[in-house]
Predict the 3D structure of the following.
Amino acid sequence: MTRTDLSSKSRTRPRRKVLISGAGMAGPALAFWLNRYGYAVTVVEKAATLRSGGYPIDVRGTALEVVRRMGILPRLREAHIDLRRLTFLDGDGSEVVSVSPHAVTGGVAGRDLEVRRGDLTDALYTVVRDDVEFLFNDSIDTLDQSAHGVDVTFRGGGRRTFDMVFGADGLHSHTREMLFGPEEQFHRYLGYCFAVFTLRNTFGLSHETVMWNTPGRAAALYAVGDDDEVHAFLNFAQPEPPFDTLRDPEAQRALFAGVFANAQWEVPGMLAALRDADDVFFDGVSQIRMPRWSSGRVALVGDAAYAPSFLTGQGTSLALVGAYMLAGSLADRDHTAGFAAYEHDTREFVTVNQGLVGEGGTTLFPTTARALEQRNDRLRKLSAMPSAEGRPAHSALTLPEFKPMT
């Protein structure tokens, strides 16, 4: 890949070396922009390869401008999932209402994107792989900061020194734990547990989602196209976070089997598939809220710093925008001034998007019979035509133009 003129101009000074932990979405996006501003970038990823597949994700509002500036918007447009219908069901499986998905999510038809997670990670990797060093099947073991850099020991045994280190390693970030301490102090549990997995599409579903609800319980089947598989989703209300269950797959399956034991519709078949599925992802629905996102020469980005939860639909967009803002803040500043600018200029956007969580919870997962009845009434009144504007929070930040240090 030919390096950009912008990147070349910034190399009249020695290239500062940086390490990014995590090759999901925030990590490669940050790597792209830091390389553009003249940094020598290494990305370490504990998985052996890029993680393909996964639940579809959304790119909306300000984040669309980020991917446009990266040059990957046309590729993502081609990968767009044309979800046409969202159908809600009562506890007995009868239809409550069928609406346009954008009417519920606040997205804008014809503008906002929904793509398979793997399509986005592939696109991000493709635009950085020739300019950035990737270390797969490895991770950070220790960080030791000094006035001159960050000494890093890798789990694979290597040792290197970097000018800065960035944690882009997700909701349960190891980098954040090393830097700031246990996750619990920043973890805001939202009162639900969920499991996602795939199963065969024997339901005749295509380009649609069907969601079943009873008070405090939800089940959904999500067909992203005409594929042979659908994404299955189970969710239930639970007052306390399931920390003890997170690392025990059998306990997870038993928990869901008990909660959904008397459920109707397709739920019994979903539970049977859950027992044998090899791609189950289980977690509590939560956010990460931190008073600051950096310490010394180490900073966090994406879910590691400000996970908004899937109830907002903004996790991917926050990761992309945060990566752009963090790298740009360092284009012509040292780490102290750059990290301060990143937090100052990005936090309001993060806050308003994390604030969308209440709307998502009341719409998707009512916890009482009364709340479910009210939700159903609201859905019946929704216009079949999606909003032409979208939610203001999605576009609450206008991207600045950053110039590299010369």
